[in-house]
Specification:
- Helix 7 runs antiparallel to helix 9 and helix 9 runs antiparallel to helix 11.
- Helix content is 57%, strand content 3%.
- Strand 1 (21-24) and strand 2 form a beta hairpin.
- By secondary structure, it is mainly α.
- It has three domains: 1-77, no CATH class; 86-374, Rhopdopsin 7-helix transmembrane proteins, CATH 1.20.1070; 475-536, no CATH class.
- The longest helix has 37 residues, at 160-196.
- Pfam families: DUF2434.
């Protein structure tokens, strides 16, 4: 049941010409009509009937009252008539601070939210953006609340501005709590990403550690939303009932000192403890561990980012202030006559400090994708150094690039094969033809006098200017490797000599498989080239039927199998 406020601040009507007349600023009003419509005169120079309120001070005197209870040339009590006071001036300064923070938070969101690597299912891009989203939300709430705070001083009687200021102050407090949590959670995610980037299997995604990191944000937001539902969903009209001391004691104070606000502040304390739990978890899993609990305790101070050493104390001051205003009216932001220094130092300054620290960190640090690319480049350089690989500088491709030579794809492939020592040896006849042609041109009297044609399109000049080495043997047969090496050496010592082996033998040496029979190779080497050719012909000649074996048997170490005996017609 609503409490009826006694009219303790009412005063008698000014005397007029008679008992039914009263005078305000030289204007006569019908006292009978005023009493009929239940109007009462108060000490603050207002007349009200609990539904309408009119001002009766210079120069806002009403001229007349009509039979329907309305006034001529009247001014409502809920208008911004006063000059701005200390609270409005301080609030204007905080409007500028919140606007500056919003101006820098948006570039930080663009900088750290941009993707430079493909999206991973384990790390969503929105995870790194949430702290900047919440920062923008806090700035928006602060700007709206501080703009309304200007009219708290200017309104003749408390009205909607104090309601808006109080409402958005609590919303900004919740947004700041979420901002701090997202900053800590993102540091946890970033530490995990750096840890598993060299080895994706270092930490499974759904192990005990991963499930703890999955449930911890849900628990945090559970208590934060409990704080929201304990404070926000209620009637805030009682905050403006500060038009007299009696209203303050019976309406405004009981509202802001209710149990709901105290329980909501307790939920913020739980959220603050969860912040430290997340920090300890991150340092334990993603940072070097100490030898014992003492060194692990020191690791907490060593590996905690510097910005959190400034953010967490500011957050503690903010929570402590919200706890304090649940018991003290003189420093409560709802109080229109409260201590301005305490209200802005404990209620608004910590939020601004947290956002400024976040902005400094965001402007100083690079995008995490770019940092991850740099770390991968460093690890690649370390691996190359351990393997003895020296990478060419960045300008090497621009200076030695072959795009300006207009080479075809086949010519580029031949050029690259020749650069690594590949390609097949030139035929002896072609080599002799090139050498004879070169000698003939050098000795002839009418040789061309112009400069040599060094264009890459000229096949003859390319063939004369570059020596194509034979392809080295890369198989596992030592005998074939020895024969191939001797063949390459003989071709280099005697380039004009005919090839020592036939194309069939060369093709056999290039194949990968078991070596040829030792007896055949020995007899071939003893009898010279003729014996070698006879051995090749003997190997290429088909065997008798009694010695015929399967392909798999021919590829084994059984070089001289026993003759097979035919037992039935199925064996033929």
């Amino acid at each position: 049941m609503e409490t009826i406020v006694p009219l303790e601040n009412s005063i008698p009507w000014p005397e007029g010409d008679n008992d039914t007349d009263t005078v305000f600023g030289g204007h006569h009003l019908n006292l009978t009509l005023l009493k009929q419509w239940n109007y009462t005169l108060y000490e603050n120079h207002t007349i009200s009937n609990f539904s309408k309120c009119k001002m009766v001070l210079e120069p806002h005197f009403p001229y007349a009252i009509f039979t329907n209870g309305s006034f001529a040339n009247s001014t409502t009590c809920y208008r911004a008539l006063n000059h701005i006071g200390p609270r409005a001036k301080t609030g204007t300064g905080f409007v500028v601070l919140f606007a500056i923070c919003l101006f820098f938070i948006l570039p930080c969101l663009r900088k750290h939210g941009r993707l430079h690597l493909p999206t991973e299912r384990r790390f969503f891009p929105i995870g790194r953006r949430w702290q900047w989203y919440w920062g923008s939300f806090v700035c928006a709430c602060g700007i709206i609340g501080m703009f309304a705070n200007i009219d708290v001083d200017r309104y003749y009687l408390p009205s909607i501005p104090i309601v808006i200021t109080s409402f958005f102050w609590y919303l900004a407090q919740m947004g700041t709590m979420a901002l701090v949590w997202e900053a800590i959670r993102h540091w946890n995610s970033w530490s995990e990403r750096q840890w598993i980037d060299p080895n994706p299997f270092a930490y499974p995604q759904f192990d005990q550690r991963g499930m703890f990191e999955f449930w911890l944000p849900l628990v945090y937001y559970l208590f934060l939303w409990l704080n929201f539902f304990m404070i926000i969903p209620q009637s805030w009209g009682k905050t403006q009932l500060q038009r007299s001391q009696q209203q303050i004691d019976l309406r405004a104070k009981p509202f802001v000192h209710a149990v709901r606000f105290k329980v909501g502040a307790s939920f913020l304390v739980v959220c603050y403890i969860i912040n430290f739990v997340s920090l300890v978890h991150t340092i334990w899993h993603y940072k070097p561990r100490g030898r014992n609990w003492f060194y692990q305790f020191l690791n907490f101070f060593r590996y905690t980012p510097v910005r959190f050493w400034f953010i967490l104390p500011c957050q503690a001051v903010m929570i402590a202030f919200q706890w304090a205003v649940c018991f003290r009216w003189d420093i409560h932001p709802v109080n229109i006559d409260g201590d301005v220094t305490a209200i802005f130092a404990g209620g608004y300054a910590p939020m601004v400090m947290i956002m400024l620290i976040q902005i400094i960190w965001g402007l100083h640090h690079v995008n995490e994708d770019l940092e991850l690319i740099r770390q991968r480049r460093v690890r690649g350089a370390e691996v190359d150094a351990s393997l003895g690989i020296v990478n060419k500088p960045n300008w090497w491709k621009r200076v030695h690039g072959d795009d300006h030579l207009n080479l075809t794809m086949m010519e580029r492939l031949r050029r690259r094969v020749a650069a690594v020592g590949g390609g097949r040896r030139m035929d002896a006849a072609a080599a002799m033809s090139d050498e004879n042609t070169g000698t003939y041109q050098d000795n002839i009297e009418m040789s061309p006098s112009g400069p040599p044609n060094d264009r890459p399109q000229s096949k003859a000049s390319s063939r004369r200017s570059k020596v194509v080495l034979p392809t080295p043997y890369t198989g596992k047969s030592e005998q074939r490797r020895y024969e191939r090496t001797m063949e390459i050496a003989s071709s280099m010592l005697f380039p004009n000599a005919p090839p020592r082996i036939t194309p069939e033998r060369l093709r056999e040496l290039q194949e990968d498989g078991p070596p040829p029979p030792y007896g055949a190779s020995a007899s071939g080497s003893a009898s010279g080239s003729g014996g070698h050719e006879s051995s090749v012909r003997s190997r290429s000649r088909p065997r008798p039927d009694s010695y015929t074996s399967s392909e798999s048997a021919d590829s084994t170490t059984m070089l001289n199998p026993k003759p097979q005996k035919i037992k039935s017609m199925l064996d033929i």
